[in-house]
Every structure is written in C-alpha cells, then in structure tokens.
Design goal:
Elements lengths: L1 H9 L4 E17 L2 E19 L2 E7 L5 H14 L21 H4 L3 H18 L6 E15 L4 E16 L6 E8 L7 H13 L3 E2 L4 E7 L5 H10 L2 H6 L19 E3 L21 E5 L2 E2 L6 H6 L8 E2 L13 E2 L4 E3 L6 H6 L3 E9 L10 E12 L2 E6 L3 E5 H4 L3 E4 L4 E3 L2 E3 L2 E9 L2
Parallel strand pairs: 7-17, 8-15, 14-21
Antiparallel strand pairs: 1-2, 1-4, 2-3, 4-5, 5-6, 8-22, 9-10, 9-14, 10-11, 12-13, 15-16, 16-17, 16-18, 18-22, 19-22, 20-21
Helix pairs in contact: 4-5
Length: 434
C-alpha cells in the first residue's frame, strides 16, 4: 500500500515522503495490589509530506486505507505551505541494528501475570500498607519510510517493560522503578528491592536550609541536563542564532568527566538505523571529556545552515510527538559514559546534600539557555545517610556552570528519558528551602 501511494504521488508532486508506524502492545496492570486489566492494542498512523512548487504539503491519517484522501489533503496543504529549502531523503545504506526479539513478540501473558504476582508478594511482604501498582507490557513497533528519492527504510523493534510504583501518602507524587529490555528478562528482583528501599526513604520529610550544596543527579533526573544541553546543540537554536553554544565547537563546556554519546546502534532499547526522515543515524560523541564535538541537525535545519542532516530528524518533543508531528532535531539514543563510583559511595561521601530524582516546572525554565529552576523531587542526605524525602525545596542553576564541577560519576547505568545514564554527583547547586 505504501508503494501504491508513493507511485500515485509521483504524478502530482515534485518530491514525496511517506512515514508509516504501527504499534502492537499487550499489558498487564495491577492497581492497589489487585489485577485491574489485561489489554491488547494495535495503533497505526501515516504521515505524508510532499513538495510542490517549492512549498511543503502535509497529510496524515490513522491508516493507509484511503490513499486518495491523503493525496488530496497533501495537495491542498501545499497550496499554502511554507517554502521548503530541502529535498526528502534519497536511497542510502543503513547501519545494521538489532532491536528485535522474537521471544518478546511471543512472550506469553501468563508470564507477565506471574511477574506481577511475584512483585506484589515481595512488595507487600515488606510494605503491607501501601497501594502498590505494577505493570508489565510487551510492545512491537514497525516503522516504514519511503520517498520518491529512493529511500526504503523499515525497522521492527520490541520491548518488554516492568514498572512498580506507589503513591506517597500526602505528597501528590509516587515512587517508581522500572526496567525495559529488547528481549525478555527474568523477574527483576533488584528493581523491586530498590523500589522498597526508596519507598522507605519517604517515611520522613525534610526541608533543607537555603544554601548551595552537593546534588546527586539520578538517571531519571538527568533528562533536565540532557534536554537543556540538546536544546543548546539543536539546529533549531543554531538557525535562530539563540544557542549559547553557537561558537563553542571543540571548546570545553562541561567537566572532563562528562562524555555524552548519541549511540543509536548498540543493541539497547531505542536503537535505530535511520531517523524519522529516512536518513542513516550516526554514533558520535556530542561531548567528549567536556569538549563540545557535535550538533543535532535534521533535513530542514541542515539545509538552512548549509550542512547535511546528522540523522537526528525525529518526531519527538519535550511534550508529545507522534506520527503526525513534524520531525525536529533530537538525539537518537543517548549514552552518558559511566565512572568508577557507586551510588552508595556517593551518598556515604556527603555530609549534606540532595539525591535528585526529578523536578517540577522544568518546562518553564529557560532550559534552552541552560537555566534550570524547579521544585526538587528527591531525598535529603545527611551525614552519609538518606534521611527523608524533600518537601518545599527548590533547585536552580545553569548546566554550563554546574556541570563544569562534577565530583564523581557512578558505575551503575540505568535507563532514563531518551537514553542510558549513570548517577552524577555535582559539587554544588543553589537550594532554596527554609
């Protein structure tokens, strides 16, 4: 059907691109310790971009069942579309990636239920009074891209995920831990054990004194660092000339302990051989030992800057994204190089500090300039021990200043937003409490 639609478009448009995505998932959910649902869903979507008379036309639908409607929508859109300074991708060789497991695709629902039941028993044995929520889900995603320039790209990827969470009484937020892999895994006892430990840390509340203090950034909190940095190296900010890193290529911008790689080729969740515009992805350092090495470009921003796409045109955004979204410069799959410390050693080394697990209000920060000002979510550390969860605490700073002073990086690596990260101990940040 994609080829039929593409062939029909050749008679109407100067250039065409078809992006098709189908997702199939099965999930088992436990709420408040009881089985709540077993569900299976199949979702698909298609987006067509065309070029006619130098202008961009767009059409989208949930299926490929009505190609005539897509062609008509695209033609009408192109009448009033923006000028498009680039052509869609052309035929290319794609790097080989392996994000698929037949065992995941065939993983039985009975095993998903067993995993939930085991987690329920282990959690309630230690924390009998909490409202525990558990989800095990398997997903299979099929992405296809075809262009009039000869691109034919297809990738199927799978994932099995396990999530355990529970609301903190009176806090309006939850403690959670998770694990996701391409292939099936055994019951993740270590994930459940760490969840229990962290939930116990919430029994007391702490509000620190207002001052600067060390901060351990968890892999789940580091999205605030990586998104701010990736905004700074985005072709979007370069085109607008608003990036704080405009003239910083090959210059030191962070601690020499920081090496951040865009790595879409290793066999991990999120591996991709091509971006959402059909351009081959690349494994490359964005920051190497603190030195800025690369920028993120898609077809549009690359053309405006007189450069090629770096294979970073993805239908992702800070909020939302999806098939009907326009591609924009975005990292493929981040990897922050680990260090030699352990999380427990980091905690034990601090007389006073914060273990940061997240931040509320990040989107309101001027993060594209590196600024962060959030309500801190996490835990207080005193005399080498976690003593309670944070309450009434704000955290602020600029990543280009604070991450020049990194004391230690953990050897543990965990999945976070958009990639895989260790724990990072920053010397000090401004904390506002009591």
């Amino acid at each position: 059907m994609i080829e039929k639609l593409l062939n029909a478009s050749l008679e109407l448009f100067d250039d065409s691109e078809i992006y098709y995505k189908e997702e199939v998932n099965t999930s088992v959910r436990y709420g408040n310790g009881d089985l709540r649902s077993i569900s299976s869903n199949r979702i698909s979507g298609v987006m067509m971009r065309v070029k006619r008379g130098g202008r961009l036309g767009i059409a989208s639908a949930t299926t490929l069942d009505d190609p005539l409607s897509l062609l008509e929508q695209a033609a009408e859109s192109a009448k009033h579309g923006d000028e498009i300074p680039y052509s869609f991708s052309v035929a290319a060789e794609f790097p080989e990636v392996k994000p698929y497991s037949q065992e995941t695709s065939d993983y039985p629902t009975e095993k998903m239920i067993e995993m939930c039941e085991q987690a329920k028993a282990d959690v309630l044995k230690e924390l009998p009074d909490i409202s525990v929520n558990i989800k095990v889900e398997k997903e299979e995603e099929n992405i296809q891209i075809a262009t009039s320039g000869g691109t034919r790209a297809q990738q199927v990827e799978t994932g099995l995920s396990f999530v355990v969470s529970a609301p903190i009484r009176g806090a309006g937020m939850s403690v959670y831990r998770f694990k996701t892999e391409i292939a099936p895994f055994e019951y993740p006892e270590e994930v459940v054990r760490e969840f229990i430990r962290r939930y116990r840390w919430t029994e007391n509340t702490k509000t620190p004194q207002t001052k600067r203090m060390p901060v351990i950034w968890t892999p789940q909190a580091l999205y605030m660092f990586t998104l701010a940095l990736c905004a700074g190296i985005s072709g979007e900010e370069l085109v607008k000339k608003t990036s704080p890193l405009m003239d910083k290529h090959d210059q030191k911008i962070l601690s020499d302990k920081i090496t951040l790689i865009d790595d879409p080729h290793s066999p991990r969740v999120g591996a991709r051989g091509f971006d959402d515009e059909g351009i081959p992805t690349e494994k490359r350092a964005l920051v190497q030992k603190g030195v800025l090495k690369s920028f993120l470009l898609d077809l549009r921003t690359g053309a405006k800057l007189g450069a090629r796409s770096s294979g970073n045109g993805f239908k992702r955004a800070l909020f939302g994204g999806g098939t009907s979204s326009m591609p924009n410069p975005w990292p493929a799959n981040l990897w922050l190089e680990p260090g030699s410390s352990s999380l427990d050693e980091m905690i034990a080394s601090l007389d006073e500090g914060i273990l940061l697990t997240g931040g509320m209000g990040f989107h309101s920060s001027n993060y594209s300039q590196g600024h962060i000002a959030v309500r801190a979510i996490g835990f207080m550390i005193e005399k080498g021990q976690v003593t309670g969860r944070l309450e009434g605490t704000m955290l602020s700073g600029n990543i280009y200043e604070e991450f020049k002073h990194v004391r230690a990086i953990s050897k543990e690596i965990e999945q976070g937003h958009g990639g895989f990260y260790p724990y990072v101990l920053v010397d000090s940040m401004q904390v506002v409490g009591k």
